[in-house]
Write a structure and sequence with these properties.
This protein is α/β, with parallel strands linked by helices and 342 residues long. The chain is built from 9 helices and 10 strands.
């Protein structure tokens, strides 16, 4: 296999997005994602419904990705797939499809850790576009609905976790607050939207003390719940009258908690390159505050393109490319892993 000409078909199905991408080496030729709207009426992802929709979507999404890339299955040299972490049923659909393709095409199968994919999304290139990339080693803050981690990235395949949440992830803290406010799912982007018209210093919320560089968001969520309940008792229209300020203050608080540990880690390690990754890295205020760190700390910062922040197959493909360089292939006996350490 000629690595620089390797065509990788990548599959991502860890939660409720069915995504397929085609890459030639580290160059993304297509990246197609089908999002599932059915979960909005339930206020969160229903695992059984998610896996059913993956079964409906995966063949047409893969076909669309190949067509957009101008290629066919005969051109594919390797199949990459998310093995975990994620929802077992959703992962099983993607993994079963990938294993079938690998067997039928007689090409290598490459398993990918979903969170590693988020980090390595920074190394994606596009036709006629060379995107900025961090230099090794760099510090990456991965923030999503299921994870919050500070990772020292020594090389493409060598990660060291410096800190992580001991309970809930920051993305879950956003979505739970949105639910408390009566906002529809997914609520995180709506908090970001309303916050842009609010005062980030209007209200204060609790901080949690955690040793080292770890995080905790459970207490912050509880503080937010009690804050809303207490104020509604005094004024039933409190949320309606103060929605923008509530969203701005809560978002500001969560980002301040995130970046406090990140700044500490940057100072302690002396690393001058800082990146963010994961679904919450699409948050406009977080992106703004990260860019502000360049002047404050004298560092370089890296933020993925919006389409590579949320779950997508391009990030699975780029990770597979680096594993392909090291000939890290998988056999057909692998099974999905709901939990899978970086």
């Amino acid at each position: 296999m000629q690595n620089l000409n390797t065509v990788i078909l990548a599959i991502e199905s860890s939660c409720d997005d069915t995504s397929c991408a085609v890459l030639k080496a580290n160059m993304v030729l297509s990246n197609i994602t089908a999002s599932q709207k059915i979960h909005e009426q339930y206020g969160g992802v229903i695992p059984e419904l998610a896996s059913r929709d993956h079964q409906k979507n995966i063949v047409p999404v893969a076909d669309a990705a190949l067509k957009k890339a101008g290629l066919t299955l005969k051109d594919v040299n390797a199949v990459a797939v998310t093995r975990g972490p994620g929802l077992m049923g959703s992962l099983l659909v993607g993994l079963s499809f990938a294993k079938s393709l690998s067997l039928a095409l007689n090409v290598p199968l490459i398993e990918v850790n979903h969170m590693q994919g988020h980090v390595l999304a920074h190394f994606i290139d596009e036709p006629d576009t060379v995107l900025p990339k961090p230099s090794f080693p760099f510090l990456c803050l991965t923030v999503s609905g299921g994870h919050t981690q500070l990772i020292k990235v020594k090389s493409a395949l060598d990660f060291e976790i410096l800190g992580e949440t001991i309970d809930d992830a920051v993305g879950e803290a956003f979505d739970k607050a949105a639910k408390i406010l009566g906002l529809p799912y997914p609520g995180g982007p709506l908090i970001d939207k309303y916050a842009q018209a609010g005062n980030p210093n209007a209200f204060e919320f609790a901080f949690t003390k955690v040793p080292g560089l770890d995080y905790s968001f459970s207490g912050i969520k509880t503080s937010f719940l009690y804050f809303i309940q207490n104020n509604i008792q005094k004024n039933p229209d409190f949320v309606k009258n103060n929605l923008n300020d509530i969203c701005a203050s809560y978002q500001h608080h969560l980002i301040r908690v995130l970046l406090k540990n990140a700044k500490r880690a940057l100072k302690e390690t002396g690393i001058k390159h800082f990146a963010i990754a994961g679904g919450v890295s699409a948050n406009s205020e977080l992106r703004k505050q990260v860019k502000a760190l360049e002047k404050e700390l004298g560092i370089s910062t890296y933020i993925p393109k919006f389409e590579y922040c949320t779950d997508n197959a391009a990030m699975i493909g780029i990770t597979a490319f680096y594993k392909c360089l090291e000939k890290q292939f998988s056999d057909l006996s692998i099974t999905p892993l709901a939990r899978m350490p970086v």
